[in-house]
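User: What would this chain look like folded?
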Amino acid sequence: MARGLPHGRPHPRPVTVLTPNSAKKFILDNTALMAPPHVPEILLHLADEAHELWLRTEDELAEIGLPPPFWAFAWAGGQGLARYIIDNPSTVRGKHVLDFASGSGLVAIAAAKAGAAEVTAADIDPFCTTVIALNTKANEVEARFLGANCIGTDAGWEVILAGDVFYDKPLADQLIPWFAALKARGADILVGDPGRSYLPKTGLEPLAVYEVPVTRALEDAEVKRTTVWRLALRRG
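Assistant: Here's the prediction, encoded as structure tokens.
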């Protein structure tokens, strides 16, 4: 007898070939539509049993060359940044916005709700095109999906939003000069970060601090102190 998931559904069959239909089925089988605790205005397809989904799918997805399901969780940096955008809509209203490493699309949805003229949600995980489409539909907003590595590119975005991106040194080493170049030509760069190891130590202006509830199974605490930062233009 197959062991059931906590919500009563049997384990779905593993994803062996990723197609739009198989991605959608995998997402719907493994998540539930719910509001992140710090951003109750938004609904997302999130893992309702985080630890089990992470352990099971990390291996399963790796077998077909896909990363772990970062898109199934509302990470602290994204929740803090989404909260700030909703509470300060003038930050994005009427502007062209890039949500970098969008994951579930949480921050992109917040920007769309706050009145951005155009939102691009960028992520290289193939699942994200499907989960972001599901999540934007659930919130009755629109966002363009970019499924390519956009580091080093410039499509004229006026605001770049980045939630929880400084967890990895090689990635941070690429992001810092790219963000600096975008800032130098006039873009506004906002970062949500709960104290990740590779957040730059200088050149950031704090805008807001939040106590964000998170999943202890994936973090080291049940609440993460999260800061929203604005990248400052370096002088000299």
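Residues 76-231 form a domain with the Rossmann fold fold (CATH 3.40.50.150). If you want, I can go into more detail on any region.
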